[in-house]
Amino acid sequence: MTRQTLIFLFLLTLTARLPAKDFPQRKSIALPDDSAVAKLKPGPGVEKARASCGICHSTDYIVRQPKMDAAHWQAEVKKMITVYGAPISEEDAKAISDYLTSAYGTANSQKEKSRK
What we know:
The protein has six helices and no strands. It is mainly α. It has a single domain (34-115), classed as Cytochrome c-like domain (Cytochrome Bc1 Complex, Chain D, domain 2, Orthogonal Bundle).
């Protein structure tokens, strides 16, 4: 037996003999429901955004972002794919970034998009 194993067993034996009052009370927290899904604005691509983005994080992360132009939303979607490994196809990535731009973009990015 290694020295670390012997120390572990010794400490385990000591703690097993301590009265229950010496241990801190077990605590728990209750997380709020993730009701942010309902907060996503309607629009073309919302279902793809909800399905693809919701795999890794709450949609609260989308709703609480500052308004960004199309280039920034495209960069965010690309980052999720290349850095974090989000399983999103190129076609879906375009639909998602278009949705994010129209629903959560700056006024300028929405005007630019409508001109195209």
